[in-house]
Amino acid sequence: TRAVWEIMRNIANSLFVIAFMLIIYSQLTSTGITNYGVKKLLPKLVIAAILVNLSFIVCALAIDLSNVIGAATKGLFDSLGGLIEIPDSDGMNIGNGGGGWLYIVGMVLSAGGAAAIIYAQIALLLPMLVGALAAIVTVVIVLTMRQALIILLVIISPLAFVALLLPNTEGWFKKWRSIFFVMLLMFPAVAAIFGASALAGKIVMNSSDGDILVQIA
Known about the structure:
217 residues; 81% helix; mainly alpha
């Protein structure tokens, strides 16, 4: 990623050289960019030149911050969920390490009650498991695409900061910034949704009074 970013940075720096030459030409010939335009453009030119050469570090820090917030969010909900013990229908603790689902599935599949009840429980459980699996697969695909898109956004970040210079191209920079921000926000958001859902699930199971159907739901 850094190797390709360096190529983009060199291209961006070349564009800065062209921009400086246009400014010098305008000053010498009094054509093109006005003095007011030069004074307005120079500060942005200096800031953009600095950001272009530091864009990899800036993006890396932003990504690290996103990952830290996402991991901390998940850890917070996990720690809260770890305080909740889920009893089964006989008052025994199912545990907090993810054994709840295994217990429920095993209980449904090995139930010794009437066949109609077993079939009803299996019929209720399977669609839920399929739905949960589809949700997990979707999130994995989305987060994988997010990671790939972030890499591409980091690579083109020097050109994005160059686009900040001119009013006609500033919209490209804003679009890059918007997409990059959304990609960074996605991981903490997913961590919050999954963490809160897992915590809510444990609370509901703990309040189910051993009702297997409520625990499955």
